[in-house]
Amino acid sequence: MSEPKKALVLLNMGGPDSVEAVEPFLYQLFSDRDLIQLPLGALLQKPFAKMISHFRAKTVRENYRRIGGKSPLLHWSRLQAEKTCDKLGEDWQAFVAMRYWGPRADEVVQRIVAQGIKEAVVVSLYPHYTGATTGSSIKDFKRAVSQHAPDLQCRYIEEWHDQDQYLDALAECVQDGLAQVPEAKRGKLTLLFSAHALPQKFIDRGDPYQQHVEETVAGVMERVGDYPCQIGYQSRSGPVKWMSPDTLDLIAAAGKERRSLLVIPVSFVSDHIETLEEVDVEFRDHAEEHGVSWFGRVPALNDRESFIEALAALVDKDEGVD
To answer: Could you tell me the residue range of the domain that residue 57 belongs to?
Structure first.
């Protein structure tokens, strides 16, 4: 009999698989205290999540309808896992665990155990570490391991914002995006890197997310050449102080100066609602409204060969597990 395979588990946030799933998905999201912490404590977390998910659902459902009625995040995450295992060899088996929608960590850990697998490498698909995303997903997976498979040996890869192969792959996306820019629009072109915003209090308490984003951008710019560039933060909502500058403000400023913009969604490794709807629809409309000379977005990493090689190199870097 052949030896049991090793598990490669990719972690991501997940997304609704239908418009009907939007409200329960949002409820799971807003219930996570690693992501959103109410000042009045944990007792109000779930009632708050119930209320805000109900009021937000109508708008969010329309956003998902504009991109086909569901999130493509599971599709891309599965492809990334499967193609990475193809690179690693026949000893590996691919799994994906989502934080706020299926397949959840409990289900995935139980499937791993049922197949007799003893070792797993668990990779966060968020390159830039924050307790709100990677931290929450890793904590959730470790809880599931403790509950269902305490003998499963796991190695966790929690941050890789400066990995050379990842930076090469992202720079390749930027070069593909630059090829879209009309020659007449290149003279006043700005590369606008847009990352998902966090409440400023995360950064103030020592979360390395912003530093990681800035280091990624510096690494990409070393590879793509001498272009003006900016970093903005998107997807801000709610009455808290957020990281700045807001990507929307940078777009408006570019319009005043009649600049061209090429947007690089830097904190996302695949297409989903923040790229397909927020950038491609909302940001494009905002750019047109404010007089941006030309607006484009680089292709997402998705299952790009160079990105799959980067993931395989991450997994293959060390032999041991912890």
So the answer is: 19-66
